[in-house]
Specification:
The protein is of the alpha+beta class and about 250 residues long. It contains 4 helices and 11 strands. Strands 1, 2, 3, 4, 5, 6, 7 and 8 form an 8-stranded mixed β-sheet that branches. Strands 9-10-11 form a 3-stranded antiparallel β-sheet.
């Protein structure tokens, strides 16, 4: 989601100096886990199939997203539209979520895990158009390989973008061609893992001056045991909303 990482321009409002500025968390892994948060039940396996998801998006339940706004600094104007694709890949073991790892040299959010996507362009026509175009540009996944199921409620990021998640089923025989400037690699995480709140962590980071920020994390240990993919921030918040939608 490269374009959405650009911070909005500074306001000329004199009161802006009194507003809390957005701060970066140096290493979210250092933030302690809040073990007092109640654990919710996992989404039943029967709801995590391609057919079940098609039916749920055709006839959505009454539900409320848990995370909709991360603009914890005071707003500096209208949020700019953007969209991401939440790619679900049918595998023999069940649906998997395709995620990207941003390259380490980027000016913001370097090395973080994200959905493919970015800011809306005038010719996109809709959030779906934005998500599919950006996905093709970032990881080379043709839109013809994506069956769009629907959209989730938008999420306003700390950088001032109103991001619409677009959920889609991806042809499992797809071949990816990564934009080497933006995407270091892609990997898949079982949807069952991400929709089980025992794998969701509420963490709290505290700066030296006492300012605090709470965020969600979903650490995923690589199957080969060599490392851990630390899913957190906006990506984790959107996945938590997907959990709420499927659990409702």
């Amino acid at each position: 989601m490269s374009a959405t990482d650009r911070p909005p321009s500074r306001s000329n409002d004199p009161a802006a100096s009194a507003r809390p500025s957005r701060r970066s968390i140096p290493d979210p892994r250092e933030a302690p886990v809040d073990i007092t948060v109640p654990v919710l039940p996992a989404v039943p396996a029967a709801r995590l199939t391609a057919d079940a998801l098609r039916e749920r998006f055709r006839h959505p339940p009454v539900w409320t997203p848990e995370f909709v706004d991360d603009r914890w600094r005071a707003g500096e104007g209208a949020a700019r539209p953007a969209a991401v694709l939440v790619p679900l890949v049918p595998r023999a073991a069940g649906l998997a979520v395709l995620l990207t790892l941003r390259t380490a040299h980027l000016s913001s959010h370097a090395g973080q895990i994200a959905f493919p996507g970015g800011r809306t362009e005038p010719d996109d026509g809709s959030p779906v158009g934005t998500a599919l175009r950006e996905t093709e540009e970032e990881i080379g996944l043709p839109r013809a390989k994506v069956e769009v199921l629907g959209t989730m409620p938008s999420y306003t990021t700390g950088t001032g973008f109103e991001v619409t998640p677009v959920v889609g089923l991806v042809d499992p025989d797809h071949v990816l061609v990564l934009d080497a400037f933006e995407v270091a690699e892609t990997f898949e995480v079982p949807l069952a893992f991400l929709t089980d709140p025992t794998n969701h962590q509420r963490r709290l980071y505290r700066w030296s001056d006492g300012v605090e920020r709470s965020f969600l994390a979903m650490p995923w240990p690589a199957p080969d045991g060599t490392r851990e993919h630390f899913v957190w921030g906006v990506t984790a918040a959107m996945l938590r909303n997907l959990y709420r939608f499927l659990a409702a």
